[in-house]
Design brief:
Length: 302
């Protein structure tokens, strides 16, 4: 009887370890092959079949490929891989200096009033109740042309991508063979041609994926800024302009270069940091900035 009692705990412990590892992988969203599991755990395939089909009944099920996955009913928590996927989708994957799974799960498990961190919400436009977003999403998936009114003009566009930039949602679309962007909040009378399909232009797809802005043009302008020491830290710690590069002078100021598609990518940033930022090149853009400031002063004084 004593030998029987000493052998059972070992088997039970191995079973518990095997099931816990299988469960952990299922909750990560993995599809498990029974033959590979048997090889990894050093047991017979029939033992794995009993684990999955009997011991984990209602938790694991076969998919169409014959692999075992977590049942829909067992998804009481979001699979771990979806946490990383959502972070990439929402553009927050670099939000925390520590993006390890252990750190993120610890924050989620901590009640909000007790968390040592707090993220202030970034302003976003509210498109709730606006059907255009959902309609365009479906049209992109089905590659269906769209007609709509934009800034008072009728448009026929081939939708490629929905892009979120600085709190605003844009539609990247082809119009008359050119790639353009449209603010979704300004789209009216949207209609989708459900009878037609269009082919994606690979060059447009590559361009959208390679650019981090919504100003679509094949022509770029190199801009050179002088940033005074008082504002240098803010330009060195984050990308305030597209394709931004900088070097530090001996007086602590920065020379900042950027390649942009339109002057209005630069002017709002420079205005925000006046008088600590000056446009050195193109000189015409500096002149336009000064002219705009003079017009504003004249308007205020009138």
């Amino acid at each position: 009887m004593s030998s029987h009692n000493t052998s059972n705990p070992g088997k039970g412990e191995k079973l518990a370890q095997r099931l816990s590892r299988i469960l952990a992988r299922l909750h990560r969203g993995e599809g498990l092959d029974k033959h590979r599991l048997a090889e990894e755990h050093g047991v017979d395939v029939r033992t794995i079949e009993r684990d999955l089909g009997e011991r984990l009944l209602g938790i694991a099920e076969r998919d169409t490929d014959g692999n075992w996955r977590l049942t829909y009913a067992a998804h009481s928590t979001i699979p771990v891989k979806h946490l990383y996927g959502y972070a990439r989708l929402s553009g927050t994957h670099n939000l925390f200096p520590d993006d390890s799974l252990r750190y993120l799960l610890k924050q989620l498990d901590t009640p909000e009033p007790s968390r040592p961190t707090r993220v202030q919400a970034t302003p976003h436009e509210d498109l709730r109740g606006t059907p255009a977003f959902t309609t365009l999403h479906a049209a992109i998936l089905e590659r269906q042309p769209c007609r709509f009114i934009y800034k008072g003009r009728p448009r026929l566009a081939l939708p490629y991508r929905l892009i979120h930039k600085s709190g605003i949602w844009y539609l990247a679309a082809e119009e008359n063979a050119r790639l353009k962007n449209f603010s979704i909040g300004l789209i009216d009378e949207l209609e989708v041609d459900g009878t037609a399909r269009f082919a994606l232009n690979p060059a447009h797809v590559e361009y959208i994926d390679a650019n981090d802005d919504v100003w679509y043009t094949t022509e770029t302008t190199e801009v050179l800024l002088r940033v005074a020491r008082e504002a240098a830290y803010y330009f060195s710690r984050q990308q305030l302009l597209p394709n931004q590069q900088h070097s530090t002078d001996s007086d602590g100021s920065l020379l900042v270069t950027s390649k942009v598609n339109h002057i209005h990518q630069v002017l709002p940033v420079v205005r925000h940091w006046l008088p600590h930022v000056r446009i050195l090149r193109p000189a015409a853009w500096h002149d336009e900035l000064v002219a705009g400031l003079k017009q504003a002063v004249q308007r205020w004084e009138s």
